[in-house]
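I am still getting used to backbone structure tokens and would like to learn alongside you. To get us started, please write out a protein record for me. Once you have written the record down, we can walk along the chain together.
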Amino acid sequence: MKELLTRLCGAFGPAGAEGPVRDMIKEETAPYSDEQAVDNLGNLVITRSGSGDKTILVAAHMDEIGLMVTYIDENGFLRFTNVGGVFTKLLTGKRVVFQNGAVGVIGQEKLKDSGELDLSKLYIDIGAASRDEARKKVNIGDMAVFYSPLGMSGENRVTAKALDNRTGCAVLVEALKKMPSEPAHRIHFVFTVQEEVGLRGARPASYHLKPDYGLGVDVTRVGDTPEPEYKLDVSLGKGPAVKIKDTSIICHPRVTSLMIQTAENNKIPYQLEVLERGGTDAGAIHLSREGIPSGVLSIPCRYIHTPAEMVDLEDLDNAVLFLLRLLEEKWE
């Protein structure tokens, strides 16, 4: 799991430019797929044919948050806008990397008051001395992501950029590898695009695939750090979480009940999650067509949308087991 995560998190893949991540997942899962397809928006759909009459869509988004160049000044400094939920106050001094390998650092103008800080006061310095020199490396519309490779933090925890949601992608990949030759149902594993900018990829994918049930696999906030912003009964290392509600969905009780029953029957540690702020692909899936009963398998994650997100590897292993057992259940 750690080796797979290292490669997935190291891949460049902001919303709208998920190609490198998609190519990596396609290659990794080819031996375990009955069908592979890429739709018009770039979602990767991997299908496993099953013996039952139900179709289940399991989604994890490939994209990460990023920055997009809007202007290059005469001295070669890059102005930018956000792609997804970037925390402005955390950007100063952070290193970023573009798809072509160009590396920069985020600088900040002088402020009279720290409350004035917004994206207009920040710039990316790629070491260029002029606009012309900068344009040899970077152009308007190019995107950058945090430059923050995966590393260990303690015995069983890792930090990196893009754990939101390369952890979900890794869980789906590992579940695919361990599935029986003939699953109990027809399963569509969908690695989606543009979740971070409005759950965009999951919408057309779920419309096209017409599943009987939907399941998102994504990270969630935790409440186990000192004075967290939100009181949340989720902690690192205590197992994956069964989502009850977030701002994009109230999960279908039929799905959440099945998830809880599955975890308890198989003695898999789990937590219950009510997220006051945030959403997942399930928010788009459950509103597709006439409505699709949906739930979410959540992976506890600290410091979401920063260059050093943190997850527990044991939570990921339990999430893989949880997903495998869940897909073997009778979905009535």
Remarks:
- Helices lie at 2-10, 19-29, 131-135, 163-178, 202-209, 253-265, 282-285, 313-328.
- The chain has a mean pLDDT of 96.
- Residues 163-178 form the longest helix (16 residues).
- DSSP finds eight helices and 17 strands in the chain.
